[in-house]
Every structure is written in structure tokens, then in C-alpha cells.
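Fig. S4 source data, part A: sequence.
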Amino acid sequence: MTMNRFTNPVTSADQESGGDSSRMHIGTNHPGLGLKNRKILIVADDRSKVLYLSDILSPAGYQVADVNSGAAALDHYAQLEQIGRAHV
């Protein structure tokens, strides 16, 4: 067994199956598992990083949105607050 760059164990089965050992896998002991179906806002101007994070988080059950600036993040958050108040 080896460790990938995210210090997750990479087993020989992963290597034999052609698994991508450079990708982070969220295992069953991950502390964020209780947050499934939660919303995550990614704020980044580098589209490749947004796509990379989305590819990891979406299959793990997170609802992912993204914006490319701090100002856009504040606007997005304000919209979510208004929606939340409308449902109360």
C-alpha cells in the first residue's frame, strides 16, 4: 500500500484497476460525511480548480455552486438568505 498526495491509502487493487491515485477519495471515515446534501460554494477564478473540486464533492453528495470573485460570493450568499427567509 502506498500513499497518494492527499495521504489517502492507495491499495494494489486501486493500482491494478487503473484507479486515479492522484485524486482525493472521500472514504467512509471522512469527517464530512455528516454534511451530505449540504451546499458548498467554491470561490475561485481558476476554472480548472473549480471543476476539480466539483468532481470530488458532487459525487460525494454535496450540492456545489461556484463563483469567480468575493463580490459574487457575497451576492450569492445574500440570494440564499432571501430564499431561506421566504421558506420560513
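Fig. S4 source data, part B ends here. Residues 1-15 have pLDDT under 50 and may be disordered.
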